[in-house]
Amino acid sequence: MEEELEMSIEIAQESMSGAIERLKRELQRVSTGKASPAMVNDLLVNYYGSPTPLNQVANVSKSDSRTLAIQPWEKAMLGPIEKAIFEANLGVTPMNDGELIRLMIPPLTEERRIQLGKKAKAVGEEAKVSVRNARRDAMEAVKKAVKNGYPEDAGKKEEINIQDMTNNFSKKVDALIAAKEKDIMTV
Fold first, then answer.
1. How far apart are alpha carbons 37 and 35 in whole angstroms?
2. Where in the chain is the domain with CATH 3.30.1360.40?
3. Is the pLDDT of residue 187 over 70?
4. SS3 25
5. What's residue 92's pLDDT?
6. 49 pLDDT above the threshold of 70
7. What is the band of 171 on the pLDDT scale with cuts at 50, 70, 90?
8. Which residue intervals of the chain are DSSP H helices?
9. Cα–Cα distance measured from residue 144 to residue 87, given in angstroms and rounded to the nearest whole number
10. 183 to 40, 45, 52, 112, 172: CA distances (angstroms)
């Protein structure tokens, strides 16, 4: 019984860690007005009928602080890459010169900065929901164990530990969001 409880708590901790990692990846995709290959990392391109990550069909590099260069390994991929960028609604227009695609990242307006800040907060809230769901599952496992004969005082200690773990992960989410908002709002 104790092993099952430990396993449930461990699963909750892994789930919370996973939420933090997903948040970090999502925040990388939120533009800060600077070019970053992470903006297009998860972009799927139609590669001969199957959706394929952009970085598997092209080389993505940063030309300067506001420009990304996408060099496909096959010239036939220029069109599908361009189409995928349009469909991703990144807020940039791809420029195709027949050899490579350039993405010029426009400077952020105050209004766009506020929108991106809201988007970052929304992504952070999703991470917090994941953390709270993991806490709920772990708490239910503790209650079930107590109901099945696990000592009540030990169950209370486990609940306190789970809540402390949840609070720590929530603080990490808040810190990541605050750092991203600061980055977005910095002109």
1. 7
2. 37-104
3. no
4. helix
5. 80
6. yes
7. very high
8. 2-29, 78-88, 110-147, 152-185
9. 47
10. 19, 29, 31, 13, 17
The two tokens of residue 95 are 């420029």
Mind listing the pLDDT tens digit for each residue in 136-170?
A: 999 999 999 999 888 989 889 999 999 999 999 99
What CATH number does domain 2-29+109-185 carry, 3.60.70.12, 2.40.30.20, 1.10.132.20, 3.10.310.50? 1.10.132.20
Tell me what pLDDT residue 48 has: 86
Is pLDDT of 71 > 80? Answer: yes
Strand order in the sheet with 67-72: 58-64, 67-72, 101-104, 94-96
Tokens of 128: 């917090």
Q: Which CATH architecture has domain 37-104?
A: 2-Layer Sandwich (3.30)
Residue 71 token pair = 């060099």
Euclidean distance between the first and the last CA atom of the chain, given in angstroms as a whole number: 55
Taken in order 73, 78, 83, 85, the sign of the CA dihedral is positive
Round the average pLDDT of the chain to a whole number and report it: 88
Sequence ranges of the chain with CATH classification 1.10.132.20: 2-29+109-185
Distance CA 141, CA 45 (A): 43
Stated length of the chain: 187
Residue 125 has pLDDT above 90, yes or no: yes
Its pTM stands at 0.73
